[in-house]
Design a protein that fits this description.
- It contains 15 helices and seven strands.
- With 394 residues, it is of the alpha+beta class.
- The chain folds into two domains: 216 residues, MetI-like fold; 99 residues, no CATH class.
- The strands form three sheets. Strands 3-4-5 form a three-stranded antiparallel β-sheet, with no helix packed on it. Strands 1-2 form a two-stranded antiparallel sheet.
- The longest helix has 37 residues.
- The chain starts with 6 loop residues before the first strand and ends with a helix.
- The N terminus is likely disordered.
Length: 394
């Protein structure tokens, strides 16, 4: 390798500098370290992943969401009871605390049994722990039977109550249904309604936003006016009106898909505007013009050349839209306009807490608020991390 020529230069500040006029090729292996070479050869997604890993809060939010979504396919196995299983002997039972030691002796995870008494003066159930009833918690056990995904009969659980005992980690409601099992099963509907709704919104947003941004003119005007009309309507009352139109005779599964479609149909305008603004700029790029001159049709130019250029931004925007969908389903079910029993979601569980008097006496009925807050915050932090990672100027 020949020695490069070094020529002096002046910057106008009295300091002599030397400039190397030899062109620098960043892909020359001998000019780069191994780490630099990996950086220059990395794809867009690899660079985005490296930037995302530096956002510690977003990484922890993603881990939390992973464990929440782990409940979705395995709710029957994780929950100790069926969400609609009633126990008439334990109405409005408080949460049972988990202990490890009994009278100074290590027993392992266990709960104390209850002694129930109805208070005639205040008309409420009063439960006191019975320390003579030590009920060890069983793990990887066989308990209440269920149909896994409604298909296979089984009775295997991760956690079970003691034989003849109870295990109410989050208490029970007015019919003696276990709140913890309801929370586990409720994650299946409350978390998936956001994913499916956002998928519908993304398809519609990319379709209408892509048409408006690429063709412009009359098509752009029609799409923009439709977006303005939808954005001018108040969101929650519109959700309530459309949900109230769903027949009460429909099955829980049909109502679930109806609510999901409603949320998805009303979420696409914001994404469509983002797609439109990006395509208005990208359609004038040289590679888009070259594809058009080579005979590519509009659908191929939009789908293969323009949309992939900012797909990372769309994913970040979609991640930030999921919390609003979860809150929308929760609000509709809380107001008895969404899902209803026997379907179980976090909003359905919160429907039991509409009476403020009941909440004051039995505060554990507000337990579904906790996972809703955690998931919404986690999605917001995850979306912030993805948005920063997708930003090429950061």
């Amino acid at each position: 390798m020949t020695e490069r020529e070094i020529t002096p230069g002046q910057a106008g500040d009295g300091i002599e500098r030397y400039v190397d006029p030899t062109p620098f090729d960043p892909m020359q292996a001998e000019a780069l370290t191994e780490a630099q070479l990996r950086y220059y050869q990395a794809s867009q997604w690899q660079i985005m992943w490296r930037k995302f890993r530096r956002h510690r809060l977003a990484v922890w939010a993603g881990i939390i969401l992973f464990f929440f979504y782990l409940n979705v396919p395995f709710a029957e196995i994780i929950a100790p009871y069926s969400p609609n299983q009633r126990d008439s002997a334990h109405l409005f039972a408080p949460p049972q605390a988990v202990h490890l030691f009994h009278e100074g002796r290590f027993v392992g995870p266990f709960v104390y049994g209850f002694e129930a008494k109805f208070d005639l003066e205040f008309s409420n159930w009063v439960y006191t722990p019975d320390h003579s009833k030590v009920q060890p918690i069983r793990f990887l056990c066989f308990g209440a039977p269920y149909k896994f995904w409604g298909l296979v009969e089984w009775n295997f659980h991760v956690i079970c109550p003691a034989e003849g005992g109870t295990l109410f980690l989050a208490g029970t409601d007015r019919l003696g249904r276990d709140m913890y099992s309801g929370l586990v099963y409720g994650a299946r509907l409350s978390l998936t309604v956001g994913l499916i709704g956002v998928a519908i919104g993304m398809v519609l947003g990319m379709l209408f936003g892509g048409l408006a941004g690429y063709f412009g003119g009359l098509v752009d005007t029609i799409v923009q006016r439709a977006i303005e009309i939808l954005r001018s309507l108040p969101e929650l009352p519109l959700w309530m009106a459309l949900s109230a139109a769903v027949p009460v005779t429909w099955s829980p599964l049909a109502v679930y898909f109806a609510i999901t479609i409603i949320l998805g149909l009303l979420d696409w305008p914001a994404l469509a505007r983002a797609v439109r603004s990006k395509l208005l700029a990208l359609r004038e790029e040289e590679y888009a013009k070259a594809a058009e001159m080579m005979g590519a049709g509009p659908s191929r130019i939009i789908g293969r050349h323009l949309l992939p250029g900012f797909m990372s931004h769309l994913i970040a925007s979609a991640t930030l839209s999921i919390p609003s969908m979860i809150l929308g389903e929760t609000a509709l079910s809380f107001l008895d306009l969404g899902l209803r029993r026997p379907a179980v979601s976090w909003g359905v569980l919160l429907n039991e807490a509409q009476d403020i008097t009941v909440v004051i006496v039995y505060p554990w009925l507000m337990m579904p608020v906790i996972p809703v807050i955690i998931v919404v915050l986690a999605f917001n932090f995850l979306g912030d991390g993805l948005r920063d990672a997708a930003d090429p100027y950061r």
